[in-house]
């Protein structure tokens, strides 16, 4: 039986959600537990209630919206993604998976068929690292990849903790967020590709087989500072210049890697005291480094570490290397992918198997249950920018395939 998501409603809701932002359109900014994030959560729960769906929140704010199945004893099928957004992001990263998932649940309910298993839509807390520096906070805690204790140690840029920031709606202690394996029978996430492959190939759907292994680390450089006029060049220990050399070493290590998929980004840099006539005494870098090939990634990271130490020794700079996270890649479930492939073919959607260079909550859900991702194309592959865009046709195909795949899995 065909399942037809209401694309007009879905596009309208994507627009409504995009308007809940700390920055004016077309930018979208929704940082964990900011006013905009809390407003977006409230807005989503109101849409779920309107659709007659039960919802609940866990202790870290993961939201669960349930379409009941015939047998509530069976592990449900789950879908979902995130609504938080890094500063000056776009309107589609994460939200297509949350609102496309809601629309898929509505389409299944409207079909009149009650699935054997319940289907749960999950809005994960903090897929983005903006607030606490680590991504996938909600799904890491669910999968046990981050302990409640480790989560309680996290601090934001104003030195606030998760305990201080999480709203009263996040009831219970953080230990209760962890789910046992088998809680779900399957998890499927719909997401924009955040890369150019599908659009370049003119394809409708990406069936993701592997999700990149993200690593992130913070480097602190301590030099001696001093007067910009009085300290001659041979006597300087300039923290910023050491950091600058290391940032270039990160780029070179990615370029020299044996794998074409190794990527390195120095996305955050701070320099103190930050005065034009004072030699930087301190510098901070935050670096994101990934590949789907773990060995290639870790070989490049080892070379960066050696080079960073050599640069700092030569320059007389103290180096403090702090890991934020270093995760293995995830392999998606071939069974789920063939179910999705069968439906994509039946629906006449062109498709291909591919990898995800972005990380997602699926990276951690894969530690809890069989997991797969469905990609739709986005314009020029742009993402994490205000001009991020997915067409109505692409969104409709993604939500339609998601609905058919979820119903199939929920009747298994
Ligand atoms: O950075 C990522 O890969 C994801 O978009 N947070
Ligand atoms: Mn993102
Ligand atoms: Mn995302």
Structural class: alpha/beta
Please write the CATH class name of the largest domain: Alpha Beta
Write down the overall geometry. Answer: elongated
Order of helices and strands: HEHEEEEHEHHHEHEEHEEHEEHEHEH
Largest sheet: number of strands, sense, barrel closure: 9 strands, mixed
Cα-atom radius of gyration: 23 Å
Average pLDDT, all residues = 97
The portion of residues forming beta strands comes to 15-25%
Helix content: 25-40%
Give the bound compounds: (2S)-amino(hydroxy)ethanoic acid, manganese (II) ion
CATH topology of the largest domain: Aminopeptidase
Output the number of helix runs.
Answer: 12
Low confidence ranges: none
Written description of the protein model:
- By secondary structure, this protein is an alpha/beta fold.
- It folds into 2 domains: 7-212 and 329-410, Zn peptidases (Aminopeptidase); 213-326, Alpha-Beta Plaits (2-Layer Sandwich).
- 35% of the residues lie in helices and 23% in strands.
- It contains 12 helices and 15 strands.
- Strands 2, 3, 4, 6, 7, 8, 13, 14 and 15 form a 9-stranded mixed beta sheet that branches. A 4-stranded antiparallel beta sheet has the order 10-11-9-12, covered by helices on one side. A two-stranded antiparallel ribbon has the order 1-5.
- Helix 10 (334-347) crosses helix 12.
- The longest helix has 22 residues, at 294-315.
- The radius of gyration is 23 Å and the shape is elongated.
- The mean pLDDT is 97.
- The structure holds (2S)-amino(hydroxy)ethanoic acid and manganese (II) ion (2 copies).
- Residues 127-128, 135, 358-359 line the site of (2S)-amino(hydroxy)ethanoic acid.
- One manganese (II) ion binds next to loops.
């Amino acid at each position: 039986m065909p399942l037809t998501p209401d694309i007009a409603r879905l596009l309208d809701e994507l627009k409504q959600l995009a308007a809940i932002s700390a920055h004016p359109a077309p930018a979208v900014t929704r940082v964990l537990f900011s006013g905009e994030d809390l407003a977006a959560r409230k807005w989503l729960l109101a849409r779920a209630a309107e659709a007659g769906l039960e919802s609940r929140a866990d202790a870290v704010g993961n939201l669960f919206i349930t379409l009941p199945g015939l047998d509530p004893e069976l592990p449900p099928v789950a879908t979902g993604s995130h609504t938080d957004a890094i500063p000056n992001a776009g309107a589609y990263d994460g939200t297509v998976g949350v609102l496309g998932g809601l629309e898929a649940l509505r389409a299944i309910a409207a079909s009149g068929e009650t699935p054997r298993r319940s289907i749960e839509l999950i809005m994960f807390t903090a897929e983005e690292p903006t607030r606490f520096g680590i991504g996938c906070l909600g799904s890491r805690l669910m999968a046990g990849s981050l302990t409640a204790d480790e989560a309680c140690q996290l601090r934001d840029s104003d030195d606030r903790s998760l305990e201080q920031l999480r709203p009263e709606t996040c009831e219970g202690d953080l230990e209760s967020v962890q789910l046992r394996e088998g809680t779900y029978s399957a998890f499927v996430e719909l997401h924009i590709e955040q890369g150019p492959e599908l659009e370049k190939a003119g394809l409708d759907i990406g069936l993701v087989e592997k999700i990149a292994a993200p690593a992130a680390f913070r480097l602190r450089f301590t030099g001696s500072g001093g007067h910009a006029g009085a300290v001659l060049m041979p006597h300087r220990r300039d923290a910023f210049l050491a950091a600058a050399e290391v940032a270039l070493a990160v780029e070179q290590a990615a370029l020299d890697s044996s794998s074409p998929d190794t990527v390195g980004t120095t996305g955050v840099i701070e320099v103190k005291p930050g005065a034009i006539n004072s030699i930087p005494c301190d510098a901070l870098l935050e670096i994101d480094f990934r590949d789907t090939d773990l060995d290639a990634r870790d070989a490049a990271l080892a070379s960066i570490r050696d080079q960073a130490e050599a640069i700092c020794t030569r320059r007389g700079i103290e180096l403090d290397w702090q890991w934020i996270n270093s995760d293995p890649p995830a392999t998606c479930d071939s069974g789920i992918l063939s179910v999705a492939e069968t439906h994509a073919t039946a629906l006449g959607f062109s498709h291909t198997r591919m990898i995800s260079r972005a990380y997602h909550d699926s990276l951690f859900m894969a530690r809890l249950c069989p997991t797969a991702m469905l990609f739709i194309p986005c314009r020029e592959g742009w993402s994490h920018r205000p001009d991020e865009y997915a067409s109505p046709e692409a969104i409709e195909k993604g939500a339609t395939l998601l609905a058919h795949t979820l119903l199939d899995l929920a009747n298994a």
